[in-house]
Amino acid sequence: MPEFIEIRYEVADSIATVTLDRPDKMNAFTGVMMREMLDVFDLIDADDDVRAVIVTGEGRAFCAGADLSRGAKTFDDGDWSQPNDDRIRRDGGGQVTLRIFECKKPVIAAINGAAVGIGATMTLPMDVRLASSTARIGFVFTRRGIVPEACSSWFLPRVVGISRAAEWVYTGRLLSADEALVGGLVRSIHPPDELLSVARGLAREIAENTSGVSVALSRQMLWRMLGADHPMAAHRADSRGIQLRGRSADAHEGVVSFLEKRPARFTDSVSGSLPDIFPDWDDPQFS
Length: 287
What we know:
This protein is α/β, with parallel strands linked by helices. It has helices at 31-46, 92-101, 118-121, 152-160, 162-171, 177-182, 195-209, 212-224, 231-246, 249-259, 270-273, and strands at 7-12, 15-20, 52-57, 61-63, 107-111, 114-116, 128-132, 136-138, 174-176, 188-190. Strands 1-2-3-5-7-10 form a six-stranded mixed β-sheet, with helices on both faces. A four-stranded mixed β-sheet has the order 4-6-8-9. A hairpin with a 2-residue loop joins strand 1 (7-12) and strand 2 (15-20).
C-alpha cells in the first residue's frame, strides 16, 4: 500500500474511510491530494474486502477548495501567448470526479464542515451526501473569476436540477446545510459528533446485506442511465444484467437464503465476477 501524505486510508468491517488530511489548511486541494485520491480509489476497487466507501475531512473542514497559496497565479497554467501552446490540460478535479464516477463501490460523503469549490464538486459523483450541521457548501467559481470544474456542469444539474444548479453557480454563494438539504444536495443533516456514525451505519447496511457485484452493477446502471437518451438503453443493460447475474452463485444464494429465512452469504467478487453489461458503451478518452 502506498504511503499517503495528504489523505488517510483505513479499512474496517468492509468499510473504507478516506480522510482528507490537511487540517491546518482546511484540507485544501493540491496536486498531491489529487494523485493520492486517484491512487486510493484504485486500491478500493482492487480490494474485494471493501464493500462501501466513506469520504470525509479531518478537523473543521471537509475541503476548503483549491490551495490558493500561489495567489493570483493559482489557476494560471502558463503563458498562452507563446506559439503552439494551445493544448488543453486536464483539470485535476475532473480527473478525481471521473475516477469516483468509475468506482465499483458505493461512495458516501460525510461533509463535516466547509466544502467549497473542488471540496463541493468532488462530492457530486458520490452516491449519498450526509452533512454536519456546521457544513457550508459553495460552488464559488464565478466569485473567483473561473468556471465550474470537476465535471460539475454535468453532475450538479443531475443531482439538484438545472434551475437550482444555475442559481448556486451564478451567485457563487455559500449554502448552509439546511439550504443544501432543501435543494436535494445532501440526504440528511447531523450533529458534528454523530455524522461519521450515521455514515458508517449506512455503509454497514450495504456491506452486510447485499451482493457486492450486484451493487457495483447497479451503481453503473443508475449513473450511466442519467446520460441515456431513451429508456431502451436501460432495457438493454437491464436485460444483460438479469441474464448474466441470474445464473450466478450470488443470485442462487439470494433466493435460497430468502426461502430458508437466513442471512445471505454472497461469495462473488467484484474483481473477478463483474460482467460487462454495457458492451456498446463508448468510454470517452481525453488526452
